[in-house]
Amino acid sequence: MKLLKRKLSTTGAILLVVVGILIGTQIQNVFSGDSIYEQLEKFKDVLSLADKYYVDHVDTQKLVDAAINGMLDQLDPHSVYIPERDVKQIAEDFRGSFDGIGIEYDVVNDTLLVVSPIAGGPSEMVGIQAGDKIIAIDGKSAIGITRDEVMKKLRGPKGTKVTVTIVRAGLDKPMDFEITRDKIPIYSVTTAFMVNSKVGYVYINRFAETTTEELDTALAKLKTQGMKELILDLRDNPGGLLDQAVEVASDFIPKGKTIVYTKGRIPQANETFPSIGGNYQKLPLIVLVNGGSASASEIVSGALQDLDRALIVGETTFGKGLVQRQFPLSDGSAVRITIARYYTPSGRLIQRPYGKNRAKYFMAPEEIDSAEVSGANYMHTMEVKSDSGRPVFRTASGRKVYGGGGITPDYVVKMESAPGFIYQFRVKQVFLEYVDGHISKNQDKMRQEYGTSENFEQKFQVNDKMMSALYDLAEKDGIKVTKDEYKKGEKLVSTLLKAQIARNIWGNNGWYRVMLTLDNQFQKAVTLFPEAEKISDLK
Predict the structure, then answer these.
(1) DSSP secondary structure letter of residue 263
(2) Which backbone phi and psi does 363 adopt, to 5 degrees?
(3) Cβ-count burial of 339 within 10 angstroms (0-12 exposed, 13-18 middle, 19+ buried)?
(4) Average pLDDT, stretch 53-67?
């Protein structure tokens, strides 16, 4: 069955008005009985008068854009106008590829630093390494370059060439590398590895055109490594394509079961999306979510919860349950229009309430009512008070689940908060700067010594000397933190430093393997597989 591709990100419904402005469509009785034609005449008159009589020169393009944004602001938070300059970038994000040289990078102290070459990409093929500093591009200095300038200079059509000048720790002279640009994948499966002898872990960062293919490849590989149970991490996944959400959920759900359905004002918006069936219907499954999990992430987690196919662990999801369709406009810009709401198999509407305060709407969801579970002060079960007013629904087996916005986990586990100075460390890139200055020259030696990210995580220890040097670097960068505060956050600081070292050597697998050791949501999830098997009737 070929699924209709559709974006679930941000968009709106009355922007059919704007489409009408630009393509001449007349839809009657939208504005209190007046025709759109009459409203357009009014808009045209005001724009013409402003252009003709306003005291200063008028940028009519800016006025029209502002009018469109103002119009959409009267609808829902996800109805949006997309300027022409952003359309291509958004298309690349969902398509899952772009043309370029294939590096993950950052700008540290005005210097373009290669965080990691993308596996199999043109930069890796010519020998670019993590920790390399690009000091020139096509013979012109790259010192002081901005992130926007990096994209303009390094991206380009497939087959074109660019020369970068590299400074590398341990080498006396800069080196020139001529790189032929190629198609670079934007992966939506950030990492996938075995946590232990039987638990696999997969993190999906968004739902793009290649997500299902990437997930199936990852799961097949983990299965050959002995995977008997799976933790699927959808935390901070903002969503993406509806068809990919359906196909990802289908991997774990029997064919024919409803995964999601949509209802809108026009008949074409009313659709039901059944599972197409997959290879992992008997695999014990736990899904991690939080307030950053939205849209397609909520379709997947909601379906798996309603059908008793997985245990959901973490924090209440964002609550974005509006379906958008993107319409191109004549000048290359676009609008996204909300055409429907979507519902989980049990009938829950995922969209949380929204008003005119858009800034408040996009904040994290409010805390839910919950009751403590003895023996774990950070772990709560779903037990909503009778006066909460939240609608009650039932899963396939009769378990209670709750509507009213977002997906409430079966086990609510609040992420432990970090000391305030940690955010300053990350904004100022202290960890990356330390690794660049102290570790980069020893990366090859460390790779040989530890062999794998798993061995590194188990055996490498951050020592006092490293912690002291990191503190000194933070002070030099203007971060105000006392020795006592630093000591209290020592465990998190040392873990973040260790994770950064691991990432420079083993990429995302290295980073996540280390960070999960301090992740209380993940650590709790690992203990819950007996219950996950029970609710899925897999025992």
Answers:
(1) E
(2) -75, 170
(3) buried
(4) 91
Bridge partner list, 182: 100
- 359 sits in which H/E element: helix 358-361
Residues facing 226 on adjacent strands: none
**Cα–Cα distance, 536 to 539 (Å, whole number):** 8
pLDDT tens column, 79-127: 999 998 888 778 776 776 788 998 888 887 788 988 778 877 888 888 8
Which structure tokens are listed for 468?
Answer: 């002291």
Question: For 134-188, how does the pLDDT look when each residue is reduced to its tens digit (9 = 90+)?
Answer: 999 999 999 998 877 888 899 889 999 999 999 887 777 898 999 999 988 788 9
DSSP single-letter state for residue 251: T
Residue 234 tokens, joined: 């959808």
Which among 50, 46, 80 has a CA at the least distance from the CA of 65? 80
What are the tens digits of pLDDT across the range 461-473? 999 999 999 999 9
The two structure tokens encoding residue 411: 């086990």
Residues 6+ apart with CB under 8 A from 229: 198, 199, 200, 283, 284, 285, 286, 529, 532
Calculate ∠ Cα 366-238-285, nearest 5°. Answer: 85
What CA–CA distance (Å, rounded) separates 35 from 93? 38
Residue type at position 225: Q
Superfamily per CATH, domain 97-185:
PDZ domain (2.30.42.10)
Residue corresponding to tokens 């790189």 = 179
Delimit the domains of the chain by residue range: 7-93, 97-185, 189-321+343-417, 420-518
In sign, the C-alpha dihedral spanning 39, 33, 263, 410 is positive
Q: Which two tokens stand for residue 188?
A: 């939506």
Residue pair 227/198 in contact by the 8 Å Cβ criterion:
yes
Of 490, 491, 485, 483, give the one whose Cα is nearest residue 420. Answer: 485
Q: Which residues are catalytic?
A: 295, 306, 320
Strands (E), 189-257: 189-194, 199-204, 229-233, 240-241
Q: Is 85 helix (H, G, I), strand (E, B) or coil?
A: helix
In CATH terms, 189-321+343-417 corresponds, of 1.20.1250.20, 3.90.226.10, 3.40.630.30, 3.30.565.10, to: 3.90.226.10
User: Per-residue b/e over 188-205, b at no fewer than 16 CB within 10 Å?
Assistant: bbbbbbbbeeebbbbbbb
C-alpha 272/C-alpha 392 separation (Å) is 22
- Contact between 326 and 7 under an 8 Å Cβ cutoff? The reply is yes
| DSSP output for 468-526 | HHHHHHHHHTT----HHHHHHTHHHHHHHHHHHHHHHHHTHHHHHHHHGGG-HHHHHHH
